[in-house]
Amino acid sequence: AFEEPASSVFMTSDARLFATNSVDSAQIFEREAFGLGFQLKQREWFQPHRELVDDLCRGRNVLSDTGVGDTRRMTRAVTDLRHPLTTLEVERCRMLARIAVHAVEATAHHVRADMTESEVAGQLSHRLLRRTVQPARIQVCADGRGERFRHWTFGEQPVQQYATISCVVRRWGLHIGVTRTVCLDQVPAALEQAYRTAAMVHATGLFFTRAGQKLGNVWKKVQRIYEKFGVRSEWLQSDQASVMGYSTADERIRPESREQVLAPSTVFWHPSVGPALLGDSLLCFDASNELVTLSETWPQIKIRVKGRQVTVPGILLVPTGDSPPQVSDSQAIDCLDHPGEEMPGAVESKWEIQIPSDHPVWAEDSPWSPKSVLE
Question: DSSP label at 279?
Fold first, then answer.
């Protein structure tokens, strides 16, 4: 692993350039930043990158996102330059979401008893990498392991009853997250109860996350649901949501968060209650929200928040025999009101993405095979 970056971007009022090494310069200029008008300053690969940066900054007052050398660290100011998203970035997020949803849901449909968490993670990463999408984080929690280890990745434990599959993917530098749960034969009662509560928390977060709202105010609505359903301490077990962009968490949503939801921006909600974990990515615009990871071919739960219907993913039930996966209708669940709190103005919401009828989400143009993974 490298201990320092291979490249840095240096910008002034009249110039912009890449500071890099002789190994990476061709890839940067011919693929990553072709035709964007950058200049180049490079050194040999065996010369420290830090020295090149120091030479560029000598005699100048320089701000940076890392505080390298004598620069003044301004991580927040640099991060804020990435928001709000551009039109191109929004379209890329939509495309990335479709790929992520397909990879996670197709993998869930192929889960069988005695498959290990690492096997499931391998199938998921295969589906992503073959589409040149990087898995930034993969979680496969078999039979409730995530209740004890909320940031668990995957291990050698076999799936017996159910599995929760979650991932954050990266392409073009952008990130999207999605989470799904699949059960074999039947849904355990403890999981079903926890999932219903988590679904109401999830729907509340999705509904109240709107452009112009302070993240801390959104958090209060979510915390209220935890309290109402007798799991007031569950939110302390793990982080709940984050604003995404060019990192997996540009801004985590906390009780004291003061930042506002910008438009457009991406928010990944992933609340958990006991063994239950849900996760979806939301694109926030000035007058609407778009849940880019919602799939029409996955079980859905309809939840009413403040009289509005919010659709969240349900649990997929897969028989262990040769019969196809079952998708049962989910009944609506009432989400309790938030007494004594101001209600934001109504907005029109788009909660579904369109999937072409000639391209089913489960279609595999080349079935996954263990032979594609090196032993």
Answer: B
The distance from CA 111 to its chain's CA centroid, rounded to whole angstroms, is 21
For 39, the 3-state DSSP assignment is: strand
Encoded tokens for 11: 């910008």
CA 55 to mean position of chain CA atoms: 38
Distance, in Å, from the CA atom of 24 to the CA atom of 161, rounded to the nearest integer, reads 47
214 token code pair: 């302070």
| pLDDT tens string 44-79 | 999 988 899 999 999 899 999 888 888 899 888 888
- Give yes or no for a contact between 269 and 204, defined as CB atoms under 8 angstroms apart: no
Report the amino acid identity of residue 184: L
Provide the β-strand partners of residue 92.
Answer: none
**Closest to 182 in 3D by CA, of 132, 123, 237, 135:** 123
Amino acid at 209: T
Position 265, amino acid = S
pLDDT in tens, 202-211: 999 999 999 9
Residues 155, 159, 162, 167: is their CA dihedral positive or negative?
Answer: positive
Q: Where do the domains of the chain lie, and which CATH numbers do they carry?
A: 8-80 (no CATH), 87-334 (3.90.230.10)
Which residue is listed with tokens 């668990």?
A: 152
pTM of the model: 0.80
DSSP assignment string, 184-237:
ESS--HHHHHHHHHHHHHHHHHHHH--TT-BHHHHHHHHHHHHHHTT-TTGGGG
Residue 111: which of 359, 372, 355, 368 has the closest Cα?
Answer: 368
User: Sorting pLDDT into bands at 50, 70 and 90, what band is 355?
Assistant: very low
